[in-house]
Specification:
With 487 residues, the chain is an alpha+beta fold. Strands 1, 2, 3, 4, 11 and 12 form a six-stranded mixed β-sheet that branches. A six-stranded mixed β-sheet has the order 18-13-14-15-19-22. Strands 21-20-24-25 form a four-stranded antiparallel β-sheet, with no helix packed on it. A hairpin with a 5-residue loop joins strand 20 and strand 21. The longest helix is centred in the middle third of the chain and has 21 residues. It is globular, with a radius of gyration of 24 Å. 44% of the residues are buried.
């Protein structure tokens, strides 16, 4: 039985396995490619994934689904999310419109991708092993319901043993962290297709721990693609007087080409945005979209997105200084870039300027998370028994008070796994139970916060503030907080 590491990315997905003392990337195709596009296309009654979905999506752009990772476990926001393909699913959750009136949740779409990964991994391992579990990389900005949604996708794909690790931590593990004796403190910029994580880790002497972290859950490569798409759509509007945003199929094609333009601009100064027959005249003549775009235009279109990236870096350093007032950029040993967006030249330039040093170039930014997930799997299975990994909480954890206020019991930035005892009291003498709600304190009012667990604990009546109940609050290795009544 094998536990593999999986990096399910917004743009591409890859996997790795720790085998015979080393990490091996799993080949996703006969040509030896180690990643596949995180794309799903519905063709009639058939669901295809990966490169086949990309190919079929040219013919069926309405049902070519991509960039759905950051929508895992998310409710539909009608003010923000009513874009092409997006609709309301069961329970008000965000979903995608499919053919014949069907809808697909991000969980279902993710399960199609993960199912292909499992099948491919089993073929790769052949008779040597069978995949029964996985360590999944998750963005540090993911909230618990998003992590649980990704786990549910893995279960739908057939995995029975699923755990998670934050992507920046996985990236650090892949650098050979378990072999370091002296303390190494890298700053990790994990910039993928859908999210941005910025983290500082402290690694050495058999332990890797998160020192500080921050990030932006709605900033990734797709947002850069949208800027290119908006640019060409506005040019088309000026030239032809038609707003292509009203046509789902056209926008799907434009977004796909925008991503390719962004990639081409990573290794050339200029390129051409071209789509044949994007529209027709009233006489039926084909109209082609052809615009030249250079790096200067791209950098200007995305200036504010780059500033947000640097703001996240600054916020992480501020968190570090809260822990250690003497902490400064001089305490950063290396800058590690992770994720496909870190191939964009302006991002590398701005990161180097901010830190005053160039980032490491000896790692593959698209593979490093999967490799680290495979190493975490080996640690869990006891094949690397002398190495420990710990993380810190991304949000304040609180208990709701009777005044609808979240009372913080575990502040953001606390190391876990951990166990903590908390005492609560009755509000009045008539109470026969205490209603306990454990929250992520992301808002000032408890009713607006994410509820992690809710239970009614029986008590014997007594004068107000005299009846006590002790709770044991636990955060496990996956960062999942729960509580139970102390014995």
């Amino acid at each position: 039985m094998a536990v593999i590491g999986i990096d399910f990315g917004s743009t591409n997905t890859c996997a790795a396995v720790f085998y015979e003392g080393r990490v091996r990337m799993i080949e996703m195709s006969a040509g030896g490619a180690t990643s596949m596009p995180s794309v799903v296309c519905v063709v009639g009654e058939n669901v295809v994934v990966g490169q086949e979905a990309v190919d079929q999506g040219r013919q069926y752009p309405d049902y070519d689904f991509r960039n759905f990772k950051r929508n895992l476990g998310v409710h539909l926001n009608r003010d923000e999310d009513m874009a092409f393909q997006v609709c309301e699913g069961p329970g008000g959750m965000l979903a995608y419109r499919g053919p014949a009136g069907f809808t697909y949740s991000p969980i279902e779409l993710a399960s199609f991708i993960l199912g292909r990964v499992i099948d491919t991994a089993n073929e790769f391992l052949r008779d040597e092993d069978t995949v029964t579990g996985a360590v999944l990389g998750v963005p540090a900005t993911f909230e618990p319901h998003q992590i649980e949604a990704l786990k549910e996708a893995a279960r739908l794909a057939g995995l029975t043993n699923v755990t998670t690790i934050e992507e920046p931590v996985a990236a650090a593990l892949a650098t050979g962290a378990e072999k370091r004796k002296k303390t190494w403190r890298p700053f990790i910029v994990d910039f993928g297709g859908g999210t941005l994580d910025t983290s500082i880790l402290s690694i050495g002497d058999g332990r890797a721990s998160v020192f500080a972290k921050n990030g932006i859950g709605d900033l990734g490569g797709v947002d850069f693609d949208k800027r290119i798409a908006d640019y060409v759509v506005n040019l088309w509007m000026t030239e032809h007087g038609k707003d292509l945003r009203q046509r789902d199929a056209a926008m799907s094609r434009i977004m796909v080409e925008a991503e390719q333009v962004k990639k081409r601009l990573s290794d050339r100064e200029k390129t051409t945005f071209r789509l044949d027959t994007i529209d027709r005249t009233t006489d039926g003549v084909s109209l082609h979209m052809i615009y030249e775009i250079d790096r200067k235009i791209f950098n200007e279109l995305t200036r504010d997105l780059l500033e947000r990236m640097l703001d996240a870096c600054k916020a992480t350093l501020a968190d570090a200084k809260m822990k250690d007032p003497n902490f400064s950029l001089r305490d950063i040993h290396d800058v590690l870039l992770v994720g496909g967006m870190t191939r964009v030249p302006i991002i590398r330039e701005q990161v180097a300027a901010f830190f005053g040093k160039a980032a490491r170039k000896d790692e593959n930014p698209e593979q490093i998370v999967a490799q680290g997930c495979a190493i975490k799997a080996a640690i869990i299975e006891g094949r690397l028994p002398d190495f420990d990994v710990s993380d810190i909480t991304s949000y304040d954890i609180a208990i709701e008070t009777r005044d609808n206020i979240p009372a913080i019991i575990i502040p953001r930035g606390t190391s876990f796994p951990l166990t903590k005892q908390v005492q609560i009291r009755n509000a009045d003498e008539t109470q026969t139970e205490l209603s306990v709600r454990l929250l992520y304190a992301t808002r000032s009012r408890a009713q607006d916060c994410v509820v992690l667990q809710a239970e009614d604990i029986p008590i014997d009546p007594g004068p107000a503030e005299t009846v006590k109940a002790k709770l044991v609050v636990t955060i496990n290795e996956d960062g999942e907080p729960t509580f139970s009544r102390a014995a």
